[in-house]
Write a structure and sequence with these properties.
The complex is a heterodimer.
Chain A lengths: L3 E2 L4 E5 L4 E7 L6 E7 L6 E7 L4 E3 L3 E6 L4 E6 L8 E8 L8 E2 L3 E6 L1
Parallel strand pairs in A: 2-11
Antiparallel strand pairs in A: 1-3, 3-8, 4-5, 4-9, 6-7, 7-8, 9-10, 9-11
Chain B lengths: L3 E3 L3 E4 L5 E7 L5 E8 L3 E10 L2 E4 L6 E7 L2 E6 L8 E8 L9 E2 L3 E5 L1
Classes of the chains: A mainly beta, B mainly beta.
């Protein structure tokens, strides 16, 4: 079936470096994508989203890039901080899909001082 | 502050028991979802509901049922709990389908079936 996957299960970075978390999706009908952050013991929290009519969207210290040609999504975190340590999930859905989100397996980001 | 509240953080149940997981949202959202989260598998959709008394199967509905008698409440039922249903269960809610927006999640219920 259709699925969303991640290239790297674990990413270790130094504090202050930039982080890039990648995600591949397979449903060409997907037109809305979200990145979630999940800290230990908590539910996923929304970070940033992007619709298929955009290639790039920026938030505070985070940028999401969407490449529809190769069905690839990435999350860039600038000046990574210890508080960014968490598991990051990408998710996709499509118009008319009741907002059912399809999630990838997740990437753990470990920030070292 | 928007809120999705799950009634229990941790539950331990015996094999064969009927288990109820409760979820309440205060955002007047039409859509509600139940996911289970397992290491390496991400979040998988069990059931969702797009209106009161309406429900649709997700990707892994076997062994589960749901109930939505009120808009704010969505219950997940394990008819006869089994050890392979030991997992983290996450409830979420969102706005209707024609307004794709993020889903808001509860804090999760870690269920252990022994």
């Amino acid at each position: 079936g259709e699925s969303v996957g991640l290239h790297l299960p674990t990413l270790s970075v130094q504090e202050g470096d930039n982080s890039i978390i990648n995600c591949a999706y397979s449903n060409s009908a997907s037109d809305y994508f979200i990145w979630y952050k999940q800290e230990s013991g908590k539910g996923p929290q929304f970070i940033i989203d992007i619709r298929s009519n955009m290639d790039k969207r920026q938030g505070q210290r985070v940028t999401v890039l969407l490449n529809k040609t190769v069905k690839h999504l990435s999350l860039q975190i600038a000046a990574t901080q210890p508080g960014d340590s968490a598991v990051y999930f990408c998710a996709e859905t499509y118009s008319g899909g009741y907002n059912k989100l399809i999630f990838g397996a997740g990437t753990r980001l470990a920030v070292h001082p | 502050d928007v809120k999705v509240t799950q009634s229990s953080r941790y539950l331990v149940k015996r094999t064969g028991e009927k288990v109820f997981l409760e979820c309440v949202q205060d955002m007047d959202h039409e859509n509600m979802f139940w996911y289970r989260q397992d290491p390496g598998l991400g979040l998988r959709l069990i059931y969702f509901s797009y209106d009161v008394k309406m429900k649709e199967k997700g990707d892994i509905p076997e062994g589960y049922s749901v109930s939505r008698e009120k808009k704010e409440r969505f219950s997940l039922i394990l008819e006869s709990a089994s050890t392979n249903q030991t997992s983290m269960y996450l409830c979420a809610s969102s706005l209707p389908t024609d307004m794709n927006t993020e889903a808001f999640f509860g804090q999760g219920t870690r269920l252990t079936v022994v």
